[in-house]
Amino acid sequence: MPGKLIRTALVTGNSSGLGLGLTRMLKDQGAAVYGLSRSGCPEETAGDIRVDLADYAGIAPAMVQLLDGVERLDLVVLNAGLLGQIQSMQEADIAEVRQLMDVNVWANKPILDHLLARGIEVGQIIAISSGAAVSGNFGWSGYSISKAALNMFVQLYAHEFPETPMHSLAPGLVDTAMQEFISQEVDVERFPALKRLQEARGTDAMPDNDTAAQMILDSLERVRAIPTGRFIDLRNL
Ligand SMILES: NC(=O)c1ccc[n+]([C@@H]2O[C@H](COP(=O)([O-])OP(=O)(O)OC[C@H]3O[C@@H](n4cnc5c(N)ncnc54)[C@H](OP(=O)(O)O)[C@@H]3O)[C@@H](O)[C@H]2O)c1
User: Fold this and answer.
1) Per residue in 33-80, pLDDT tens?
2) Does residue 236 belong to any structural domain of this protein?
3) Residue 195 domain-assigned?
4) Which of 33, 127, 172, 229 has its CA 20 to 30 A from that of 20?
5) For residue 139, what is the domain's CATH number?
6) 144 lines ligand 1 (CB under 6 A)
7) Which residue positions in the chain have pLDDT lower than 50?
């Protein structure tokens, strides 16, 4: 059954990886796509603002500029995220894990608050989470904590978007800069959970960003059928 037509969308983290794939796939469907990131989207889009999501004060003005004149977004994807270091908890630097919380969780607050304050109608909200939100494997450090917090952030905000299905969604493995980092930089002997990721590279278990983006877009209708606020792993949907 065909899903709802997406005419307008907002995608955070549109410069690379999954966010860029989503932007491309949505554009291919004819959607006007708005987005933000630090380095900018390499695709021509309806609106693109460069902003550092770690700089909380800069986000609201960026949203004002980005969505000037926009009354409705059929889809919002809170995708921007940082991995940080794979490390034990005792090695984790507090400043670094705070930055992960800022970008992966709290940056989404001024974004959603702007949508609410401006009364922009939103058809569906997806926050890109991770299996790391629940797996608790050794080494996932601040990233796991930030994604677990993101899941609860979504559950709480879902009450404030009563007309809008809102979910946190683990996309499964996607071959992006994050996986490039994991495949090259990390000591797999020390962090065994990473072995599976390295082995998945180049196989169907780790699609490229465009393929993974299309899988997410194809899942939106099934996601909407699940009670709002929930965390969903695309691999189990
Ligand atoms: N790849 C996977 O296997 C996988 C698995 C599960 C979940 N995820 C999640 O998927 C999402 C996308 O990740 P990806 O794999 O596509 O990695 P990626 O290629 O590194 O993309 C991350 C995106 O987030 C943006 N971003 C990061 N920090 C930012 C900041 N301070 N301000 C503004 N934008 C920022 C980046 O843009 P700039 O650098 O230009 O700012 C980029 O567009 C993340 O939430 C990640 O946790 C990925």
Assistant:
1) 999 999 999 999 999 999 999 999 999 999 999 999 999 999 999 999
2) no
3) no
4) 229
5) 3.40.50.720
6) no
7) 1
Taking the centre of ligand 1 as the mean of its atom positions, its distance from the CA of residue 235, in whole angstroms, is 19
**CB distance 197 to ligand 1 below 6 Å:** no
Q: How far apart are alpha carbons 236 and 172 in whole angstroms?
A: 10
Q: Residue 180's pLDDT is what? A: 87
Please, are residues 45 and 23 in contact by the beta-carbon 8 Å criterion? yes
* Residue 214 pLDDT: 98
Cα distance between residue 227 and residue 220, in whole Å: 13
Tell me how many domains the chain contains: 1
**Is residue 25 lining ligand 1, measured as CB closer than 6 Å?**
no
Q: Decide whether any atom of ligand 1 lies within 6 Å of the 13 Cβ.
A: yes
143 in a domain, yes or no? yes
Q: Are the C-beta atoms of residues 216 and 171 closer than 8 Å to each other?
A: yes
- Reported pTM: 0.97
Q: Is the CB of 35 under 6 A from ligand 1?
A: no
Structure confidence at residue 178 (pLDDT): 87
What is the largest distance, in Å, between two alpha-carbon atoms of the chain? 52
Question: What does the pLDDT read at residue 1?
Answer: 42
User: Looking at residue 187, what is its pLDDT?
Assistant: 83
Ligand 1 and 210: CB distance under 6 A: no
**Nearest by Cα to 206 from 218, 217, 194:** 194
Give the distance (Å) from ligand 1 centre to CA of residue 82: 6
79 lines ligand 1 (CB under 6 A): yes
